[in-house]
Amino acid sequence: MSAPLLNDSFLRACLRQPTDHTPVWLMRQAGRYLPEYNATRARAGSFMGLATSPAYATEVTLQPLERFPLDAAILFSDILTVPDAMGLGLSFAVGEGPRFASPVRDEAAVAALAVPDMDKLRYVFDAVRSIRQALAGRVPLIGFSGSPFTLACYMVEGSGSDDYRRIKTMLYARPDLLHRILAINAEAVAQYLNAQIDAGAQAVMLFDSWGGVLADGAFQAFSLAYTARVLQALKRHDEQGRRVPCIVFTKGGGQWLEQIAALGPDVIGLDWTTDLGAARARVGDRVALQGNLDPMVLFAGEAAVRAEARRVLDRFGAPAGGGHVFNLGHGISQHTPPEAVSALVDEVHSHSRALRRAT
């Protein structure tokens, strides 16, 4: 883990420092669109078999880096490891999303909830150490967690949801119960991310994937406030004193950009519905920005992929002091052709270098 970084462009961009190109990584870059991932998952026997094995997690984390010259790796895991460690019974049925055997929907279940012993998540921290060793300084490693509100969505709904009826009913009818869930989640997430940093994560990302489903007012009270608690408890430097950048990504959160920036993250992730140039004008030099290509562009052929990548880079504008990490506006689709990712990474690197030469 002491190997010097051969490519630190991602970390530099997160801290708004100059880079010779715009770094790029992709949410879900290790996943089902890669045949090698599917082969490893078949050997593991199940998604949970894959995610709970440090050896398999290391293998699939590195797979996209063998194919594409990406500028960061992200820990292969799942956002629901924390509530699983709380004893809610996480499972993944074939062809379906995550499901909890014991959802948290009444006073008794909420009262029984507690911050889990981080030793139950040792497999995650062991994976971080294993991946760092395997990377040997090639690129930085990103750790992550779901946000307190996003975790609560799954914990209350029991699975994914189209309308978030159960958690929104709790929010309006029994806000006291939801606030208790969120307080426990915030403490657990902070401990979880800090343990990832101790294990060797060089940046961390908070996925507030469902914060954007909330009404204005509810977002601030039930999502933003608990993201703030996590950031306040988060280690911002590693044991060597190096800054560990923190990325906050709220899908559908573009209208609250200034409020998210006020929490003090190093980077704000944007989905594809927010104009990158307008976002930069709104936050100035307070934070770096990450994003924000529509993942569906990757199905449109190489010419369109390259043109849209250039458009995103051009909208951010002249990099000057840096501050842009290129990414998709959400996770990559499992049906994405890998050759589209090759074209995307190549165009981001080549066009961003051309932009720098022109300024």
TrEMBL record:
Annotated positions for site Transition state stabilizer: D78
Pathway field: Porphyrin-containing compound metabolism; protoporphyrin-IX biosynthesis; coproporphyrinogen-III from 5-aminolevulinate: step 4/4
Predominant subcellular localization, coarse grouping: cytoplasm
Catalysed reactions listed for this entry: uroporphyrinogen III + 4 H(+) = coproporphyrinogen III + 4 CO2
GO molecular function: uroporphyrinogen decarboxylase activity
Transmembrane segments annotated in the record for this chain: none
Highest taxon of the lineage: Bacteria
Gene3D superfamilies membership: 3.20.20.210
Keywords per UniProt: Cytoplasm, Decarboxylase, Lyase, Porphyrin biosynthesis
Binding of substrate, residues: R28, Q29, A30, G31, R32, D78, Y154, S209, H330
Function comment: Catalyzes the decarboxylation of four acetate groups of uroporphyrinogen-III to yield coproporphyrinogen-III.
Similarity remark: Belongs to the uroporphyrinogen decarboxylase family.
Assembly notes: Homodimer.
Name this polypeptide is given: Uroporphyrinogen decarboxylase
Species in which this protein is naturally found: Aquincola tertiaricarbonis
Lineage: Bacteria, Pseudomonadati, Pseudomonadota, Betaproteobacteria, Burkholderiales
